[in-house]
Design goal:
The structure is a single chain. The chain has two domains: about 60 residues, Irregular (Hormone receptor fold), CATH 4.10.1240; about 260 residues, Rhodopsin 7-helix transmembrane proteins (Rhopdopsin 7-helix transmembrane proteins), CATH 1.20.1070. Helix 2 packs antiparallel against helix 4. The radius of gyration is 32 Å and the shape is elongated. The chain is mostly helical. The chain is built from ten helices and eight strands. The strands form four sheets. Strands 1-4 form a two-stranded antiparallel sheet. A two-stranded antiparallel ribbon has the order 2-3. Strands 5-8 form a two-stranded antiparallel ribbon. It starts with a strand and ends with a helix. Strand 2 and strand 3 form a beta hairpin. InterPro entries: GPCR_2, GPCR_2-like_7TM, GPCR_2_CRF_rcpt, GPCR_2_extracell_dom_sf, GPCR_2_extracellular_dom, GPCR_2_secretin-like, GPCR_2_secretin-like_CS. GO terms for molecular function: G protein-coupled receptor activity. Keywords: Cell membrane, Disulfide bond, G-protein coupled receptor, Glycoprotein, Membrane, Receptor, Signal, Transducer, Transmembrane, Transmembrane helix.
Length: about 350
């Protein structure tokens, strides 16, 4: 007895002797899913010369996970991480903006605490407020349609955001400069007038951004002056990234000198404190100064490549620190300020 050839809508089974288990390669593709044809499906030919009602495709026939499928899944996972990082950015900027506005209003209401030091804090808080507002405007204005059209309001939004971004760093530099003068030259802080600090913080960034605008208008006047594929800015942005990097490096030097001077002063007046306490105080001073002087941004000049764990961690960590920095500044220099609290 034999089982006659048969077609089960998937595989053509050839004639086979009764009482045998027939093996046939798995289908190459079924319902749009590719399978490994090196594996076999099976179907039983019974002793009475009849086929089993169903062939066994589940045992060995497994869908192929090809490179395209794996890449698509990786892209979906990366997209989810980008969405989560964007949500974290939104929450961080919103919380920071709320805290910054309260801090700013405190500076306006309590005129009795007005001094050069607190006026510098006030201006730094103002730059954070304006930058955060521009960041939210950017989320609404810069989209696929406006980027492709290279609309003027999109370019204006990008320009304003970059300007306030740079002023933010220059007021951080003013903070560092004033702190250094206060620590190193206790009686020389009033040599530089407030208007001089204002020129450094608000006016110096203007020619820097104007230079960038001119270069972008002449050499890359497209896509709202941002890269629509990656969301990152072009290499011409080093026109203002360069001064920002210089400011950060100078602040890093200032921070080192401030900590060194503080340690030396603590050692000169130990008041029965041991060396460990000196170190703790120096570390505390450093932690307080880090968000103020913007040294945290130094960590993000080298971006991890690819889409691995390090890149994902960088995205979240970067989003958290940069979006909540305004909140940190508000807490450290307003809400925990003894002059404001009293």
């Amino acid at each position: 007895l034999i089982c006659n050839a048969t077609w089960d809508t998937v595989t053509c089974w050839p004639p086979a002797p009764a009482g045998t288990l027939v093996h046939m390669p798995c289908p190459g593709q079924l319902r749009g899913i590719r399978y490994d044809t090196s594996k076999n499906a099976t179907k039983m030919c019974y002793e009475n010369g009849t086929w089993a009602r169903k062939a066994d495709y589940n045992g060995n026939c497994r869908p192929l996970v090809d490179s395209h499928t794996a890449e698509s899944e990786e892209m979906r996972q990366w997209g989810r991480h980008l969405e989560n990082a964007k949500l974290l950015n939104n929450v961080g900027h919103a919380v920071s903006l709320f805290c910054l506005v309260i801090a700013f209003m405190n500076c306006l209401c309590y005129r009795n605490i007005r001094c050069t030091r607190n006026n510098i804090h006030w201006n730094l808080v103002a730059t954070f407020i304006l930058r955060n507002i521009c960041w939210f405007i950017m989320q609404e204005v810069v989209n696929v349609e406006t980027v492709l059209d290279n609309s003027w309001h999109c370019r204006v939004a990008v320009t304003l955001f970059n300007y306030f971004h740079v002023t933010n760093f220059f007021w951080m530099f003013v903070e560092g400069l004033y702190l250094h003068m206060m620590v190193a030259h206790a009686f020389g802080t009033e040599r530089i007038k407030c208007w001089m600090y204002a020129v450094i913080g608000w006016c110096v960034p203007i020619p820097i951004i104007l230079s960038w605008v001119i270069v972008m208008s002449l050499l890359q006047d497209e896509r709202c002056w941002v890269d629509s594929t990656t969301g990152q800015n072009s290499h011409y942005d080093f026109i203002y990234h360069g001064p920002v990097i210089i400011v950060l490096l100078v602040n890093f030097v200032i921070l080192g000198k401030i900590v060194r001077i503080l340690v030396l002063k603590l050692r000169a007046h130990p008041n029965s404190l041991d060396t460990t306490h000196y170190s703790i105080k120096a570390v505390k001073a450093t932690v307080v100064l880090l968000p103020l002087l913007g040294i945290t941004y130094m960590l993000f000049f080298i971006h991890p490549s690819g889409r691995g764990t390090s890149k994902i961690f960088f995205r979240y960590f970067n989003s958290f620190l940069q979006s909540f920095q305004g909140c940190f500044v508000s807490v450290i220099y307003c809400f925990s300020n003894t002059e404001v609290r009293t």
